[in-house]
Amino acid sequence: MDATKLERAVQALDHAQLVVAATGAGMSKESGVPTFREAQEGLWARYNPEELASPHGFRRDPARVWGWYNYRRGIVARSSPHAGHEALAKLEKLVPQVAVVTQNIDGYHREAGSSTVLELHGNINRFKCFEHDHPVDIEIPLATGDGPVEPPRCPRCGSHVRPDVVWFGEMLPPGVFERAESLARSCDVMLVVGTSGFVYPAAALPLAARVGGATLIEVNTQPSQLTEVMDIFLQGPAGDVLSALVAGLAARRSGSGHA
Ligand code: BV8
To answer: 3-class DSSP state for residue 227?
Structure first.
């Protein structure tokens, strides 16, 4: 990791009132959760993820899609947030306001202690019914295999239960993106962590931050679709880089005697 770039990033954080961390699947990779496109391991290698994560994919074969989410839910349940999630939670003690805007559905940011988390694409551990979005509060046994599983039925209307996540072609939860966009436009620093920048409207948030005059800092193991609009690109895994950023800021503060 480039020490000069890291120092520049720490300086930007040191002067920030509001920091927004925009995170994607790469944020959870070191927790052992495969990134979205890599989730196609084994049985899932032959399906297009945008096919599985879609209403028509579910309508066409509810058991295959439900089984895929069971398999992913099992991975999430058997793992936990890593040092990078914890670093973002710690950042709240060093910066007046921190908001996490995540594309991830694993709930790890809240679990690690972040207090303001916007889940743009929902949560894999929340359920609703397919036909009427009735919230469905059920305990789902953790998947043992990764094959198709017939989804349960809504107790109110009898339609299939589905994960309460945003599928391709579906609108984001009302108000969530608008709030994320307004935070992006007014933040001083946006950390863009572990996202390839392919999926909209999430990928538009760094552009909104840029328009708002924020310093854009990307943390990724490789360049993404967004790297060219970044002010600073810190190449490396989220856990290492975010931990180094927050440690650098804490050291700067204790060294200079700031509170
Ligand atoms: C919508 C929940 C209005 C489900 C997800 C043509 C052009 C532009 C847009 C569109 C288009 N056609 C259709 C659209 C809209 C579409 C879209 O963007 N499609 C893309 C494919 C072009 N968007 C939608 O449909 C959205 N809704 O627009 O509503 C509307 C309504 C009707 C009709 C039209 C429009 C809804 C999108 C939400 C879909 N749901 N997730 C689930 O998870 O199962 S998306 C899902 O995939 C994730 O949530 C995430 O958003 C995305 C994966 O992207 P990333 O998170 O970036 O992950 P990825 O694997 O791609 O990259 C990982 C990155 O991490 C890499 O850069 C890698 O280098 C890095 N990395 C790896 N290891 C590490 C690391 N970085 C740091 N540390 C590491 N250790």
So the answer is: helix
Q: Which atom of ligand 1 is nearest to the CA of 52?
A: 44
| Model confidence pTM above 0.85 | yes
Instruction: Kindly state whether residues 215 and 230 are assigned to the same domain.
Output: yes
Report how far ligand 1's centroid is from the alpha carbon of 238 (Å): 18
The 10s digit of each residue's pLDDT in 192-229 is 999 999 999 999 999 999 999 999 999 999 999 999 99
CA torsion 95-97-101-105 (nearest 10°) is: 80
The domain of 45 spans 34-78+122-165
CATH code of the domain covering residue 153: 3.30.1600.10
Ligand 1 binding pocket mutation candidate from 69, 72, 88, 168 (most atoms within 8 A of CB): 168
Give, as one character, the DSSP assignment of residue 175. Answer: T
39-43, 75-79, 102-106, 145-149: least confident range: 39-43
- Does 187 share its domain with 251? yes
- DSSP, collapsed to helix, strand or coil, labels residue 113 as coil
The response to whether residue 212 sits with its C-beta less than 6 Å from ligand 1 reads no
| Domain end position, chosen among 165, 192, 227 | 165
How many domains does the chain fold into? 2
Task: Return the ligand 1 atom nearest residue 195 CA.
Answer: 57
Query: For residue 176, which of 113, 117, 110 has the smallest C-alpha distance?
Result: 117
Catalytic annotation, residues: 121
